[in-house]
Amino acid sequence: MYICVMPVSVNVVYGTLKSLVNKDQRGFITVDEFNRFAQAAQLRIFTRLFDQLKDGSRLERAGFGQGRDKSKYKQIHEDLATFAKSDTESKSSGVFNRPDDLSRIISISTAGDALFGQMTRVPVEVCYDEEKIERILGSTLNAPSEAFPVALVTGDIEVFPESIRKIKIRYYKIPQSFTTAATPARSDDPPTFGVDVNNVYDASASRDFELPEHYMMDLVIEIADLIGINLRDATVTAYAQKEQNEKKSEQSF
User: Fold this and answer.
1) DSSP 207
2) What is the pLDDT of residue 4?
3) What tens digit of pLDDT does each residue of 26-76 get?
């Protein structure tokens, strides 16, 4: 189940990047250049969220985190929740396939059924180390059982004991894009700034980013960095402040 969020507009990001680059007299950003780096920039920011989550967790445990709605830890959790998915996989040729859009596993469990009003689903310990799994399998005390199964995650997923035939995977998906329709729908395509034959923005050929809209300026800076342009912090900050002031003015009418 997805959480509904307003995605970052690819049109706004491209327009903002062009404005900043031209204002700073650093050349011109072509559509091809932009599209070549748009998804890479999104993935960079997405990966960085997990590092920020660890930092936020440490601050919370140390008592330095901001409380309630101001908590950075809470905000990142909410942002990542938009990418959370679940999938049920059946064993094939002795292994379970990884979902095609899997980025990071949250948890694995056996795909149990309801029995007398209670779920028979069992958590599966997740292991990424082949040496460790060999030690577990060779243990006389901690060998996997149907009550305490273990999964080795590599190119595919092996679950022990082998009697387990079906699993449920909760995971964070790879960020992709949204269609630019009035009611956006998720797309398997990368974010794309589409143009028509006259090289004018074409919404029907475009795909918005999947990151929430408050990452707009992060994407602008990240794409500029990938293209090889270093936007001065003062320029970016001034532009962001101008945009915020304009939004407040619009909302006051």
Assistant:
1) E
2) 57
3) 667 899 999 999 999 999 999 999 988 887 666 556 565 555 555 677 889
**Can you tell me which residue has the tokens 């040496």?**
131
CA neighbor of 192 nearest in space, from 5, 41, 11, 29: 11
Structure tokens at 191: 């974010």
Measure the CA–CA gap between 43 and 251, rounded to whole angstroms. 32
- Separation of alpha carbons 234 and 242, rounded Å: 12
Tokens of 175: 């960020």
Rounded CA separation 128/13 (Å): 37
Question: The tokens of 199 are what?
Answer: 């090289």
Residue 68, judged by CB atoms within 10 A of its CB (0-12, 13-18, 19+), counts as exposed
Dihedral (CA of 130, 133, 137, 141) sign:
positive
Beta bridge partners of 177: 187, 209
Measure the CA–CA gap between 171 and 156, rounded to whole angstroms.
14
Residue carrying structure tokens 């596993």: 105
The domain locations on the chain are: 10-79+175-236, 87-173
Q: Positive or negative CA dihedral for 159, 149, 172, 56?
A: negative
CA distance 166 to 109: 9
8 Å CB contact between 208 and 9: yes
